């Protein structure tokens, strides 16, 4: 991986090199006993969607998560490892399959006896994966499983082993609702459409937004959940276009979902006044290269991080990412920060507890302590949600990925309202 520069601030907290005793792992890491002066590597197991083919909706996100995990691994080892021990990641490919993610974590815990665990990408996979972690007694730290369904699983309700370092997804669209509420009634959108892919990540923030906006008098003209397969996207997109909704709130999990809706909208000569998607537009170059920079103009997305976030560790990570993988600062997508934050938080827990005893790590993460990450502060509630997370809304504006909400933050840009018309430039052909 490339040359690394060191963190200017927070390194002592995040990357401590104490040589306190740690635990070796067995079939259940939480039940192992400490060993003196351990010298072997600390192994961390994870499962990601890396090469699942056309049926894997999370491959692009999985590859970005892998880069975030790898970047953290390189950084922590450049600083002497954890507790003086080298960190080694073992990442298995799940192809976006809930069944395979269960198999992968069973292998990592029961066969490979990894010391610690990182989560996969998506709430769809984090739920079943966390149940396996609970059965084996592992702390399950993840960055992309923020749906309520992940925290409501029987295993987490019983064992409280799941910790999401990122923004709880149900709250992601609240800044947009608050902004619409702040507008004079005459300037608010009058109608809204809420198409949603059938996914535990995509739907909760859209459903909450629909309830809150309906209470503000915004009339729902379309609301429907469709199958999360690309062949199922065209019909609901056409129905939204036919509705003429002034506001479209799309429950999406990836770039292809948003891309298909945009292609159909353009084909049907329909441009909503405001257009926000739950996920996809935050994928940097992966999004703009798919839809065209011109067509991206005015598209919004919620998230808990962006490349220009005024956080010293975040700025350092972005610089290192660009040096390692190329591209531009604006092209670094939020998946990288989510994954990197997982490593940071688990590293702080390892240092604070003096080892890799998962039971002690779980207790520490539930102690109410406030930790630090490239996404900002992290403080877990009783179910493992990050109650201290920041919530932002971003908009593509003339090729730049700008933070627009909350509007009172330093550097916040004014929302493009209405969304500029489609440009045709750089857009792939409409779906068949």
Care to give the gist of this entry?
The chain has helices spanning 11-14, 59-78, 98-110, 123-136, 148-151, 154-159, 174-182, 203-215, 234-243, 255-267, 285-291, 293-296, 312-325, 334-353, 358-365, and strands at residues 22-23, 34-35, 42-48, 87-93, 116-117, 140-142, 162-164, 191-197, 219-226, 247-250, 274-277, 299-303, 371-373, 376-378, 392-397, 400-405. The protein is of the alpha/beta class. The strands form 5 sheets. Strands 9-8-10-11-12-15-16 form a 7-stranded mixed beta sheet, with helices on both faces.
Poorly predicted regions:
1-37, 425-432
Number of DSSP-assigned strands: 16
Q: Which outline best applies?
A: globular
Mean pLDDT: 88
Provide an overview of this structure.
The protein has 432 residues and is an alpha/beta fold. The protein contains 15 helices and 16 strands. The chain has helices spanning 11-14, 59-78, 98-110, 123-136, 148-151, 154-159, 174-182, 203-215, 234-243, 255-267, 285-291, 293-296, 312-325, 334-353, 358-365; strands spanning 22-23, 34-35, 42-48, 87-93, 116-117, 140-142, 162-164, 191-197, 219-226, 247-250, 274-277, 299-303, 371-373, 376-378, 392-397, 400-405. The longest helix is centred in the N-terminal third of the chain and has 20 residues, at 59-78. It is globular. Residues 1-37 and 425-432 have low confidence and may be disordered.
């Amino acid at each position: 991986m490339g040359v690394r520069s060191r963190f200017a601030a927070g390194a002592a907290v995040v990357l401590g090199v104490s040589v306190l005793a740690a635990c070796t792992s067995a079939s259940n890491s939480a039940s192992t006993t400490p060993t003196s002066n351990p010298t072997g590597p600390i192994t961390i197991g994870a499962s990601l969607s890396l090469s699942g083919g056309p049926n894997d909706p999370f491959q692009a996100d999985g590859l970005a998560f892998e880069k975030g995990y790898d970047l953290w691994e390189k950084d922590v080892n450049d600083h002497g490892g954890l507790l003086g021990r080298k960190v080694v990641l073992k990442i298995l490919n799940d192809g976006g399959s809930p069944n395979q993610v269960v198999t992968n974590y069973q292998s990592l815990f029961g066969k490979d006896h990894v010391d610690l665990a990182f989560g996969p990408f998506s709430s769809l996979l984090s739920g079943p994966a966390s149940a396996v972690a609970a059965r084996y007694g592992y702390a399950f730290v993840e960055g992309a499983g923020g749906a309520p369904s992940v925290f409501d699983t029987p295993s987490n309700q019983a064992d409280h082993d799941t910790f999401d370092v990122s923004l709880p997804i149900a709250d992601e669209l609240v800044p947009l609702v608050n902004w619409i509420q702040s507008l004079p009634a005459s300037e608010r959108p009058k109608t809204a459409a809420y198409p949603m892919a059938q996914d535990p990540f995509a739907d909760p923030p859209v459903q909450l937004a629909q309830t809150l906006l309906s209470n503000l008098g915004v009339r729902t003209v379309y609301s429907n959940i469709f199958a999360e397969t690309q062949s199922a996207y065209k019909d609901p997109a056409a129905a939204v276009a036919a509705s003429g909704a002034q506001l479209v709130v799309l429950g999406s999990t990836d770039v292809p979902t948003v891309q298909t809706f945009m292609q159909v909208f353009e084909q049907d000569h329909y441009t909503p006044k405001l257009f926000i998607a739950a996920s996809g537009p935050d994928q940097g170059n992966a999004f703009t290269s798919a839809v065209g920079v011109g067509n991206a103009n005015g598209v919004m997305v919620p998230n808990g991080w962006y490349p220009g976030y005024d956080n010293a560790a975040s700025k350092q990570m972005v610089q290192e990412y660009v040096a390692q993988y190329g591209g531009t600062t604006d092209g670094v997508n939020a998946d990288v920060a989510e994954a990197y934050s997982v490593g940071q938080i688990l590293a702080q827990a390892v240092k604070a507890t003096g080892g890799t005893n998962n039971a002690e790590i779980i207790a520490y993460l539930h102690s109410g302590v406030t930790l630090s990450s490239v996404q900002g502060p992290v403080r877990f509630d009783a179910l493992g949600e990050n109650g201290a997370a920041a919530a932002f809304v971003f908009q593509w504006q003339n090729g730049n990925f700008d933070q627009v909400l909350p509007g009172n933050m330093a550097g916040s840009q004014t929302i493009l309202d209405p969304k500029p018309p489609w440009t045709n430039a750089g857009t792939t052909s409409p779906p068949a």
